[in-house]
Amino acid sequence: MQLLKRVVGWIVIVIGVGILGLGLSIPIDALIGRGRVEALTNTTIPGPAGPIRAFVAEPTTPGPHPAVIMIHEWWGLRPDIIEKATALAADGYLVVAPDTFRGASTTWIPRAIYQVSTTPPEQVQADLDAVFGWLSARSDVIADRIAIIGFCYGGRTSLLYTLHNPAVAATGIFYGMAAVEPSALRQIRGPVLGIFGGADASIPLSEVEQLERNLRAAGVSTRFVIFPDQPHAFVGGIDSINAGGAAGDAWQVLRAFLAEALKGQIPAGQKWPVEMRATHATTFAGWLHHRFVCGW
Question: What number is the average pLDDT over the span 263-268?
C-alpha cells in the first residue's frame, strides 16, 4: 500500500509539473517570438483598437485591381502566408494579409491554441471590417471585387466574415469549418470555394459534405474540392506549391476560382479534382485542433 501511494504521488507530481511547464511555455514562447509579426509586415491599417499590422502585396500592372484578403492559420502570420500573398499579387490582385492576433505568431501548438481560444471573434470581425474598409477606399482597388480566403483558422474566419459582411465578392476556405445555421448562409452573395483533404484528421468529411449541402440549399454558388489522401494543412509555402502534387493542384483551383469570381475569366481546360474518400480516423491532436480552431 505504501508503494502504491508513492507511485500515485509521483504520477501526480509529474502531471502537475507537465501542466505547469505547458502553462509557462506560452509566455516564454511569446517572449522568444517577440517581433515576428513586425518583421513580416510592411503596412499598418487604422483599426478599432489601434493600428493593424499587415503584409500588402501589389501587382506590377496599373490598377485598379480586384483585391484579396488572406487570413493566416492558427499559428498567426508566418512566412508561408507572405509567399502565397506575393504569388497571388502576380496574378493581378492587390493582396492584404492582416495580423488577426494583434502581434502574436508562433510555431508552438500550446500557444497556437491559446491564441485562437483567447482572441474574441468580435475583435477579429472588427479588425477585418477595418481592413475591408481600407481596401474599399483605395483608388487602385475595385471596391466591389474584394474576396477573402484563409487557411485552417483562416478558412473558418473567412466564412464567418462573409456572413458578417455580405459585400465580400468571393470566399475561399482551405480546410476550415464552422457550425453555421443553414438559414444564415442565405446572406452570402458571392461564390464559395472549399478545399479539403480527404485524410484530414481534424475535419470529418461528413461535416464538409453537410456544409456544402447547406450552401447549395441556400442558393450559394458553391464548389468544394476534396483531395484524396491529403491531411490537414496540405498547402504549405510557395515551394510546396511549385513542387506540384496536391498542393500545386489546389493552388491552381484557387487561381481559377478567383479569376472567374473577380475578373470574369473562365480558364480553358481547368480540371477540378472531385474524388472523395473516407477520412482517416480522428486523432486526439485532430480533436484538439477541431475543438479550438473550429469551436470558437
Answer: 81
Q: How many domains does the chain have?
A: 1
The verdict on residue 62 lying in a domain is: yes
Residue 257 placed within a domain: yes
Query: Starting at the edge strand that comes first in sequence, how are the strands of the sheet with 192-197 ordered?
Result: 43-45, 52-57, 94-98, 65-71, 141-151, 170-174, 192-197, 222-227
Q: Which contacts (CB < 8 Å, 24+ apart) does range 14-23 have?
A: 22/110
Judged against a pLDDT cut of 80, whether residue 9 lies above it is answered with no
Domain limits at 179? 45-293
pTM above 0.85, yes or no: yes
Task: Categorize the per-residue pLDDT at 277 as very low, low, confident or very high, splitting at 50, 70 and 90.
Answer: very low
The separation between the first and the last C-alpha atoms of the chain, rounded to the nearest angstrom, is: 45
**Domain containing residue 68: CATH number:** 3.40.50.1820
Q: Please, where are the H alpha helices in the chain?
A: 2-32, 36-40, 79-89, 109-118, 121-136, 153-164, 205-217, 238-242, 245-263, 284-293
101 lies in a domain? Answer: yes
284, pLDDT greater than 90: no
Residue 20 inside a domain? The answer is no
Enumerate residues 6+ apart whose C-beta is below 8 A from 203.
175, 177, 196, 232, 279, 290, 294
Which residue did the predictor score with more confidence, 112 or 13? Answer: 112
